[in-house]
Amino acid sequence: MRASSFLQIVNNSTQIDKAVDEIAAISEQSAAGVEQTSATMQQTSSTMEEVTNSSNQLAKMAEELNHRVLQFRLS
Q1: Distance between CA atoms of 51 and 21, rounded to whole angstroms?
Q2: How far apart are CA 12 and CA 33, in angstroms?
Q3: Distance from chain centroid for Cα 26
Q4: Whole-angstrom Cα distance, residue 45 to residue 35?
Q5: Is pTM, for the whole model, over 0.90?
Q6: How many CB atoms lie within 10 A of CB 56?
Q7: Which of 28-51 are b and which e, b meaning 16 or more Cβ less than 10 Å from the residue's Cβ?
Q8: Could you give the CA distance from residue 16 to residue 12 in angstroms, rounded to a whole number?
Q9: Distances from the Cα of 19 to the Cαs of 22, 52, 66, 71, in angstroms?
Q10: What is the number of H-type helices and E-type strands within the chain?
Q11: Secondary structure letter of residue 2 according to DSSP
């Protein structure tokens, strides 16, 4: 094997190692982004559930108030 061929193989191997390291770094960043997005979606879902519960309570209160106002008018 000639020295230039060996050096080219070493150079190619180094480039491949760098490319694999860059891909690994990008994958880690992507995973972190997905994790953050998931956490945000869970928080949003929880907030929406609270809003729904509050809206249901408010609707019940409005219905009760309306019922009491009708009773007051009839008396």
Answers
A1: 45
A2: 31
A3: 18
A4: 15
A5: no
A6: 10
A7: eeeeeeeeeeeeeeeeeeeeeeee
A8: 6
A9: 5, 49, 69, 77
A10: 1, 0
A11: -
What digits encode the pLDDT tens for the residues 11-63?
999 999 999 999 999 999 999 999 999 999 999 999 999 999 999 999 999 99
Nearest-angstrom CA–CA distance, 68 and 75: 11
Joined tokens for residue 61: 């209160």
Show Cβ contacts of residue 74 under 8 Å, excluding neighbours closer than 6 positions.
none
42: nearest Cα among 31, 34, 32: 34
